[in-house]
Write a structure and sequence with these properties.
By secondary structure, the protein is of the alpha+beta class. The chain has a single domain, classed as Alpha-Beta Complex (Aspartate Aminotransferase, domain 1). Helices cover 28% and strands 18% of the residues. The protein has a 5-stranded antiparallel sheet. A hairpin with a 4-residue loop joins strand 3 and strand 4. The longest helix is centred in the first third of the chain and has 17 residues. The N and C termini lie far apart (91 Å). The model has no long low-confidence stretch (mean pLDDT 88).
């Protein structure tokens, strides 16, 4: 069974309200960042892009969306409500009847993906030709030293 099939099976098995929330979150995650890869790790759904980005879990009284590098993310809408003391992760616990700020959640997912994306490398200047030493920048100008013993 591939990871997408395992995730679908998991969603079907957790019950009506939790399964409905998980299915909605799955759609939001993929809508926000279509390049994310669905994986099945630690018996839970995980989405990755150059490393783990987000995971979902169903618990008896809530559904959790865990951001692996959440501590490094801005949360202007105050979505994080769990794991606030963790060094790296942050989470959102969703209980039955809670509403989800979908636009803010998509924004947070996109920020998490961007955090896992490598920064573009700066363009280097021209490379030296074979056998040449790289050119150093201009030498700093120095003042002549005063001669000692002269008035």
């Amino acid at each position: 069974m591939n990871p997408s099939e395992q995730i679908s099976k998991y969603i079907e098995q957790v019950g009506v309200w939790r399964g409905g929330v998980l299915a909605r979150l799955r759609k939001l995650i993929l809508d926000a960042a279509p390049d994310l890869i669905e994986e099945w790790k630690w018996n839970t759904p995980v989405w990755s892009h150059n490393g783990n980005v987000v995971a979902l879990g169903a618990f008896r009284d809530h559904v959790k969306i865990n951001f692996f590098k959440g501590a490094s993310l801005e949360d202007p809408h105050g979505l994080f409500n769990a794991g606030l003391d963790a060094k790296a992760t942050r989470a959102i616990d969703i209980r039955e009847g809670d509403t989800i700020n979908e636009a803010a959640l998509k924004e947070l997912i996109r920020a998490a993906v961007a955090l896992n994306s490598p920064a573009p490398k700066p363009k280097a200047g021209p490379k030296p030709k074979a056998g040449q030493k790289p050119r150093a920048g201009p030498k700093p100008k120095t003042r002549p030293k005063p001669k000692t013993g002269q008035k």
